[in-house]
Amino acid sequence: MSFRLIWIFCLSVVGGALTLSFLNQRERNIGTTAATVSNNSPTVSFENIEMTINSPNGQPQYELSAPKFWLYHQQQRSEFDSPDIVIYNENGSKIYATSKKGETYNENDVITLIGDVKIEQPSSNLEPDPLTIYTEKLTVSQKKQQVTTDLPVTATRGSQKVTALGMTLNLNDKVLHLHSNVKGQYNP
Which of 13, 18, 148, 160 falls between 20 and 30 A from 67, CA-CA? Predict the structure, then answer.
């Protein structure tokens, strides 16, 4: 009888050890899977958002409206679909932007617009026709107060049309610098 008790005790110990080993391995797998998913999954997602991003002094930097918005907290970035953006310049003027997709980085200072990008600088007393720029991808930096791309661009103002490879638009003085392969067309 004592041999049987020893045998049952040994089986219980081995069974318990195997159970603990299984549970420990399962927790490691679940933890690894959760860590992998969290890096690629948004921390928060929103639908039909309208938000204003303010500068440290409380002035609006830009307004963003989009049907879908995802925030990736660990990566300090966000993504959004079909954004409509109003960019406020330091001098008080505005620039309007639309695209298929967008992303922000560096505490919302850098905005990257991707796919069918359109930037419009409204008309003014000095320029009765708006400046409209089309490209496939560009970056807006609030800190530098400029819009840049190295991709082909088309800029139109009234009957003027210019194409180029790459550009930089200074948001404060509204100077458009075309990088290379510049071709223009003027229709009186």
Answer: 148
> Residue 159 in contact with residue 186, Cβ under 8 Å?
yes
Tens digit of pLDDT for each residue in 95-112?
899 999 999 876 767 889
CA 151/CA 131 separation, integer angstroms: 18
Q: Tell me which residue of 134, 141, 147 sits closest to 61, measured CA to CA.
A: 141
Q: Which two tokens stand for residue 43?
A: 């921390």
Region for residue 24 given its phi and psi (left: phi exceeds 0; alpha: psi -120 to 50; beta: otherwise): alpha
Round to whole Å and give the CA distance between 77 and 74.
Answer: 8
pLDDT in tens, 13-54: 444 444 545 555 555 555 444 444 445 788 888 899 998 888
Alpha helices in the chain (DSSP H): 2-40
